[in-house]
Input
Amino acid sequence: GAVVSQHPSWVICKSGTSVKIECRSLDFQATTMFWYRQFPKQSLMLMATSNEGSKATYEQGVEKDKFLINHASLTLSTLTVTSAHPEDSSFYICSAEGGRAPKNIQYFGAGTRLSVL
Amino acid sequence: RKEVEQDPGPFNVPEGATVAFNCTYSNSASQSFFWYRQDCRKEPKLLMSVYSSGNEDGRFTAQLNRASQYISLLIRDSKLSDSATYLCVVKHVRTGGSYIPTFGRGTSLIVHP
Output
């Protein structure tokens, strides 16, 4: 099956620093990638939809300046958590879509566990 | 009402049992449906797509009921390894033409010996 690589898998950082998370589709081109956030025992919360070559579409309540998304190529999207604070600690997961909408399937990265001290 | 609703469970069943989960969705224009499985502290992995005619993959059967706006997942002959959280995913078209996936919060299944 399709492979999506997400890096890093675990980050511990000090409050105020910025953290960059990469999401790569390894064996297919993904025009659309999604970024999610998940709290313990909660559903995946869609943060933004990332489209190659255009600005990301953010969900209501997600700060654009806080969570910077760049989708520079068909195989790479990045999420930067700027000036991270303890409340940003969470599990961040990306997914990339392969195939044709609407039946295209999402393949997930392994997630990044962010802990802000 | 939430867009996609699932009973969080947990469903606690013995090995060999048959268990069924439902997932209801509120957007009647939803176009495609999936079941994912998520193990603790791991990423979701596709279990199966849900087709209008229903589909079966080994011990797993998925059904779609558009009239009542729900999808179901049936697991027969449960194995210990089936213990996980099962996520329902529904896609609908947003203004602008993009298909947005919405996740349910998941149903927890625990299969015990």
Chain B touches chain A at residues 8, 31-32, 34, 41-46, 49, 87, 89, 91, 93, 98-106 (CB under 8 Å). The mean pLDDT of chain B is 91.
